[in-house]
C-alpha cells in the first residue's frame, strides 16, 4: 500500500486510488490520506471509484 507521504499531487493520489480500487481486497477505508489533506483524499477517492467501476466491468465481461 502507498504511504501518505508518497502522495504529494492530486494526480499521484488519483492514480494510487485507481490502483487500489481495481483490487478486490481494497476498500475505501484503506485510503492512506488523512482528512487534513482533503484535496488529496478526494482525488484518491475519485480514483478508487474509477478503479472499482473498471474492475467491476472487467469481471462482468464474459471471457
Tell me what the structure shows:
- The protein has one domain.
- It is 56% helix and 0% strand.
- It is built from 2 helices and no strands.
- It is elongated, with a radius of gyration of 12 Å.
- The mean pLDDT is 91.
Which secondary structure elements does this structure contain, and how are they paired or packed?
Blueprint: H1 10-21, H2 38-60
Relevant terms:
single chain; 63 residues; mainly alpha; 2 helices; 56% helix
Please state roughly what percent of the residues sit in beta strands, choosing from under 5%, 5-15%, 15-25%, 25-35%, 35-45% or over 45%. Answer: under 5%
Model regions low in confidence, pLDDT < 50 over at least 5 residues: none
Counting DSSP E segments of at least 2 residues, the number of strands comes to: 0
- Estimate nothing, just give the exact number of structural domains: 1
Mean pLDDT: 91
Shape: elongated
Percent helix among the residues? 55-70%
The DSSP helix count reads 2
Class by alpha and beta content: mainly alpha
Q: Element order, helices and strands? A: HH
> How large, in whole angstroms, is the Cα Rg?
12 Å
Largest sheet: none
Q: What's the end-to-end separation, in Å?
A: 29 Å
Give a short synopsis of this structure.
With about 60 residues, the protein is an all-alpha fold. It contains two helices and no strands. It has one domain.
Amino acid at each position: 500500500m502507498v504511504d501518505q507521504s508518497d502522495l504529494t499531487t492530486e494526480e499521484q493520489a488519483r492514480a494510487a486510488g485507481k490502483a487500489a480500487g481495481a483490487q478486490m481486497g481494497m476498500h475505501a477505508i484503506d485510503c492512506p490520506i488523512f482528512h487534513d489533506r482533503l484535496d488529496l483524499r478526494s482525488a484518491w477517492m475519485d480514483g478508487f471509484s474509477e478503479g472499482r467501476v473498471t474492475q467491476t466491468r472487467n469481471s462482468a465481461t464474459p471471457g
